[in-house]
Amino acid sequence: MDNEILYFLRKRIYYLIKNKYKGIEKRMKIRRAAAVMAAKITGYMCKKMGRQGVTWAGKIALKLCPDILEQLSSQVREKIFVVCGTNGKTTTNNMLCAALEKEGKKVICNHTGSNMLNGVVAAFVLGAKWNGVLDADYACIEVDEASTRYVFPAIHPDYMVMTNLFRDQLDRYGEIDITMNILEEMIKKVPDMKVIVNGDDALSTYLVMDSGNPYVTYGISKPVMRSATNEIREGRFCKKCGERLQYSFYHYSQLGDYECPGCGFRRPDIQYDAGDVKVGEQLSFRVENNLLVANYKGFYNVYNILAAYAALRTAGFSGEHFNDMLREFNPENGRMEQFRIQGTGVMLNLAKNPAGFNQNISAVMQDTAPKDIIIVINDNAQDGRDISWLWDVDFDLLKEESIKSITVSGIRCEDMRLRLKYVDIPSILESDLEKAVRDRVKDGTGNLYVLVNYTALFATRNILKKLEEEKK
C-alpha cells in the first residue's frame, strides 16, 4: 500500500512539474515574441523618421524581455564569433559575416557597428522572425570592449577575434590598462573560447596569452612600408615585466616585431602570416599560398582582411570562396564607403583615435591626385568629451600640394581648425556639413575625402546618400 501511495505521489509531482515547465516555457515564448515584435516596430518607425533606430530597438526588447539575448543566441545552430579591439572591428566583422555567407551559412550580424549591449541585442531581435524564432547557423557580433561584461555571459561565444588595442576615448575607457583588465576578466569567463589574435600587437598578444584561453595568431612578418608617422606607441613597455620592448621593425603604432630583453616575452610564431604585401590602388597579399586581392586602400585593411580569413579558417572552412567575397564586398557604414555626387567621387571614412586617424591620413596620401578633405569632429558622449587626442595625430602630413583644400566641420570644428593652424595648414570653417559638402562638390577637385568621428558618421552618411540621389 505504501509503495502504491509513493508511486502515485511521484507521478503527481512529475505531472505538476512538467505542466508548470510547459507554462513557463509558453510564457517565455510569448514574452520573447512580444519583445521581437516591439523591437521591429521601433526600428521601422525610427528609420521612417530618419534615425538609425538600432539601439532603441535593442533597448525596447530588453525592457520587455530582460533575458532575450540569452534566449535568441542559444538558438544559433553552430558557432558564435565576437570581434573586439580598438580599430577595425566593423570591417573585420562584416567581412567575416560575408565570408560565412559565401560558404552557404545563415548569419546574424550587427552590420551597422552598434556594438554596445543594446546594439548587440538589436542584431538578434531584428534578425529573428516575428514569432521570436531565430534561423541562423552562425552569429558574427562586434562588441565594444567595455560591453563584453554584459554580452559574453549572455551569448557564450565560441570564437573571439582580437584586432588591436590602442588608446581610445580616455574619458570613456580610461587608460588602456582598464580596457585590458576588463577583456582579460571576460575572456577567462569563457575558458573554451578560442581567440584569433593579432600577433603583431604586443598588448593583445600578452592579454590573450595571460588569459589561458586557446588561441591562434595572425600577422605580417616582414616590413611592408616605412611609417611616416610619429605615433604614440602604446605597447612600448612589456606588460609582463615592465622592461622596454625592443622592435626589429614597426608597421604602425605598436604593431610590429617585438621582444622583451628582460623576460623573453616576444612576438609569437604566426599561423596566418601575410606575405608579399602590396599596397596601392588595391591591396594584395599571400597567406597559406593563397593570393588575396581587395579593391580598396589603406594598409590597415590588410590586418582586417587577414583577421577575417584567420577566423574563417580557424572555424574549419577551407577559404576557397574568400576571394569571391573580397571582390563583391563593399565597405559600408563609413568604412572607406564610396559615393558619387554630381561627378565628384567621395570617400567616407571613420577616424576616432590617433592610431586610426594616422592610418586614414596614410590611406588618403596614397592617392596622389588632387583632392579636397573635410574633417568632421564631434564631442558627444559616444565620441568622448575629451578631444585632446587630436594633438597626437600627425596632421602635418597633410602639407601636400595634392591637397587643394581642407574644410573643418562638426561641433568641435574650431578646435580642429586650431589644431591645423599649429602645423601651418590653412582650413575653411563651415559648421553646416551639408553646405561644406555642396561647396566642395561645386568648386572642388572632383575628388573628396570626408573623415569623421563616431557620432558624425550617421548624419554625414545620410547627407552624402541624399546628395547622391538628387541628380539621379
Notes on the structure:
The chain is of the alpha/beta class. 41% of the residues lie in helices and 19% in strands. It has a 7-stranded parallel beta sheet, with helices on both faces. Strands 13-14-18-15-16-17 form a 6-stranded mixed beta sheet, with helices on both faces. A 3-stranded antiparallel beta sheet has the order 10-11-12. The longest helix has 47 residues, at 2-48. The radius of gyration is 24 Å and the shape is globular. Residues 169-173 have low confidence and may be disordered.
Descriptive labels:
7-stranded parallel sheet; alpha/beta; 472 residues; globular; 15 helices
What is the element layout, followed by pairings?
Blueprint: H1 2-48, H2 54-64, H3 68-73, E1 79-84, H4 89-102, E2 107-109, H5 117-127, E3 138-142, H6 148-155, E4 159-162, H7 170-173, H8 176-188, E5 194-198, H9 202-211, E6 215-219, E7 246-252, E8 255-259, E9 272-273, E10 275-279, E11 283-287, E12 290-294, H10 300-314, H11 322-328, E13 337-341, E14 344-350, H12 354-365, E15 371-376, E16 403-409, H13 413-421, E17 428-429, H14 433-443, E18 447-452, H15 454-470
Parallel strand pairs: 1-3, 1-4, 2-3, 4-5, 5-6, 6-9, 14-18, 15-16, 15-18, 16-17
Antiparallel strand pairs: 7-8, 10-11, 11-12, 13-14
Helix pairs in contact: 1-2, 2-5, 4-10, 4-11, 6-8, 8-9, 14-15
Shape: globular
Using only CA atoms, what is the Rg? 24 Å
The SS-based structural class is alpha/beta
Our measurement of the CA-to-CA distance between the termini, rounded to an integer number of angstroms, reads 88 Å
Total DSSP E strands: 18
Helix content: 40-55%
Ranges where pLDDT stays below 50 over 5 or more residues in a row are 169-173
Strand order, biggest sheet? Answer: 2-3-1-4-5-6-9
Mean pLDDT across all residues, rounded? 89
Strand content: 15-25%
Main β sheet profile? 7 strands, parallel
SS element count, helices? 15
